[in-house]
Amino acid sequence: MKPPVIEFIGVPNSGKSTNIKLVKKSLSNAGYRVLAIDEEFGKSKVKPKGGYFYNVLGLIKCVSLLLENHNKYEIILLDRGPVDLHIFCDTLFDKKHLSETEYHSLKKLTKELSTLVSFCYLFVCKTNTSLARDEKHSKGKNGFIMNKEFLDALKVGYKKNETTVAKVIDSESATINEGVNIIMKNIMNVLEKSS
Questions:
Q1: Rg for the chain (alpha carbons), in Å?
Q2: How many helices (H) and strands (E) does the chain have?
Q3: Domains of the chain with CATH codes
Q4: CA–CA separation, 107 vs 98, rounded Å?
Q5: Contact 169/19 with Cβ under 8 angstroms?
Q6: pLDDT band (50, 70, 90) for residue 145
Q7: What is the model's pTM?
Q8: Residue 114: which of 76, 158, 160, 83 has the closest Cα?
């Protein structure tokens, strides 16, 4: 039986990675073999950042890790993956980071690869919060997406897709523990139903 693959999606600095670490720890403490796949997109050295090949490479690395390890774990947590990139593509195209051909190619690929994902959690926060958290962590080395206009456009894309996610977690209104508890309860329900 293939393990559930749970993707954490949302704007940068909205709490995805933090929650993945805590959920992984909770599931591991409960006796589950858990793999958490870090975001692969930000690790790429391909230029231009945010362009077609940059995103294809990040997606291939992410999916490769997923497929290489799916028989070794009972649960896989994914920090951004095909579902997130599928939504992200719209903003990249609108902001002229992808040509029309690249956009359609990437949308087709991400739609097909999204079938590997069991369900998603969408993390949201205010644009100013995302920017402030980025400034704190990156020490002023903001990437091209870390500006108000791009993030606001990206949030519109996530809003359009809210109905496709298991749960929306607002990292400003829910404490980290509340978010983790919501996610854990949902995951445990899924695991109980599948056994």
A1: 16
A2: 7, 5
A3: 5-189 (3.40.50.300)
A4: 11
A5: yes
A6: confident
A7: 0.92
A8: 83
